[in-house]
Amino acid sequence: MKRSTFSPTQIAGILKEFDNGKRAEEITREHGVSKASLYKWRQRYGGMEATELKRIKELEEENTRLKRMYANLAMELDTAKWIIYNTTIKN
Predict the structure, then answer these.
(1) Which of 14, 33, 45, 58 is the most exposed, having the fewest neighbouring CB atoms within 10 Å of its CB?
(2) CA nearest 38: which of 28, 52, 53?
(3) Is the Cβ–Cβ distance between 16 and 8 less than 8 Å?
(4) How far is the C-alpha of 25 from the C-alpha of 15, rounded, in Å?
(5) Quick one: how many helices (H) and strands (E) in the chain?
(6) Are 39 and 69 in contact (CB under 8 A)?
């Protein structure tokens, strides 16, 4: 997954500019962010402070890591079951 080049503090600042009436075209040109990213951030993080935004990002990263860990453990369990099943059938 591609990591954002913007820190939570920067994202919060960009969203504040947008909420204060600055046009999306100006923000995209000034900060080098696409309109789609700007509106996605607004939908996801609108109204949050930088500290809240940082915590949300940390939780999302942890959630991704835990999902990957669960997938690996589930795959290992399936492999172990397959090995046990095949060794008991042959004996």
Answers:
(1) 58
(2) 28
(3) no
(4) 13
(5) 4, 0
(6) no
